[in-house]
Amino acid sequence: MEKKSTTLGHILALLTAIIWGTTFIATKVLLRSFAPLEILFLRFLIGFVALILMYPKPLKNHSLKEEATYLSAGLCGVTLYFLCENIALTYTQASNVGVIVAIAPLFTAILSHFFLKEEKITGTFLLGLLTALLGIALISFNGAKLSLNPKGDLLAIGAAIVWAFYSLLTKKISTFGYHTIQTTRRIFLYGLLFMVPFTFFLDFNLDIQKLKEPLNWLNFLFLGLLASATCYVTWNYAIKILGAIKTSLYIYLVPVVTVITSVLILQEKVTLLSGIGTLLTLCGLFLSEKKA
After folding, report:
1. Residue range(s) defining the domain that contains residue 252
2. I need a surface site. Which of 61, 78, 87, 199 has the fewest CB within 10 A?
3. What pLDDT shows up at residue 3?
């Protein structure tokens, strides 16, 4: 039974990473008509409503300490992560952000080692980590001139760090004994609430008329219903089964999927560097999963 449960955790993490890897295409299309914060807010609003419809039972009988954990998870995993990542893209190259954000599992491993006392960092894990990071570097820097912009790169590092905290927080939330949809819904609620103050000093002027365009509302539905509502539930459930470190390793697959979907949908060319990077990323994921 335990082996079946572990297999399910890996399947959920894999499917989530694949879907998250394709969100680049949908977001890129929406950025033609909407500001980053507008996309973020509407995406998670759709996801929040979807989770209510999927499982309307309210979350009851929880303590203030548990509520603080939901609040922290919403702040880290929804508001801060996506704001840091999106704003970083306005200051530095996407190649820089892609590589830096991908080191989130490293931060997860370090934080989990010191705070949870249940995850151990082995030599094989570090070897896999370095191999995957090299692969991601080849994919992200492929054909691009690397430049350092402190503001953008620091924001990308911030995104990786807050995602690591989110992974640990969801691991803690999984021990509360509530339904995964209930807890994910509460996280979304706090994420949306924390976005509100940013609407006063970031570009936010949502034009409902633009939602009448089929391409726009279809992409919003994809981001809200699948990439947010469904994937956050599957990701949190995978963390519950596999732990914070193992689940976070699947983040390595996101840029790989992005390269593949860019070729299929945006007709971008695959070079030798990106091909080697894809293989290295998959090898790094395999190595990091090895027990010894």
Report:
1. 2-289
2. 61
3. 61
**What's the full length of the chain, in residues?**
292
- Specify the DSSP element, H or E, that contains 161: helix 150-173
Please report, for residues 60, 223, 225, the alpha-carbon distance to residue 231 in angstroms, rounded to integers and kept in the order given. Answer: 24, 10, 9
Residue closest to 39 by CA, chosen among 4, 98, 89, 101: 89
User: Closest by alpha carbon to 245, among 193, 212, 288?
Assistant: 288
Alpha-carbon span 205 to 97, nearest angstrom: 26
Cα of first residue to Cα of last residue in the chain, in angstroms, is 23
> What's the whole-number mean pLDDT along residues 233-241?
86
pTM of the model: 0.79
Q: In whole angstroms, how far apart are CA 243 and each of 218, 236, 238?
A: 33, 10, 7
Q: Is the dihedral of CA 73, 74, 75, 79 positive or negative?
A: positive
> In the numeric block, which tokens belong to residue 59?
């979350």
* Cβ-count burial 59-76 (b if 16+ within 10 Å, e if not): beebeeebeebbbbbbbb
Question: What is the number of structural domains in the chain?
Answer: 1
